[in-house]
Amino acid sequence: MIYECPSGHISFSKDNLNICGKEGCGKATVIISPIDIKWFYKIQETGLCIDRTDLYKIIEDPNMPKDVKKQI
Q: Phi/psi of residue 69, each to 5°?
């Protein structure tokens, strides 16, 4: 699923996250999408957390499959 905290951190996780996945954040999260993007687990087995402002960097990554880009 895709989660977001009030600080603008986006977490992609297969686990239920009550707290932001960004190291040192610790704020509560809300689900912004029920989609499970398994491609992110190739980068990090437990999921991935990025700043919302950096989301475009992942989308522009040439190694990311086009179908994954559409899901995001």
A: -60, -40
**What value does the CA radius of gyration of the chain take, rounded to a whole number of Å?**
11
Q: Helix/strand/coil (H, E, C) string of 16-45?
A: CCCECCCCCCCCECEEEECCCCHHHHHCCC
**SS3 for 19?**
strand
- Assessment of whether the complete model's pTM goes beyond 0.85: no
The single residue listed with the structure tokens 């297969």 is 14
pLDDT of residue 8: 94
Sequence letter at residue 1: M
Comparing CA positions, the residue from 4, 38, 33 lying closest to residue 21 is 4
Per-residue tokens: 24: 């040192």
Beta carbons of 50 and 10 less than 8 angstroms apart: yes
**CA quadruple 23, 68, 57, 43: dihedral sign:** positive
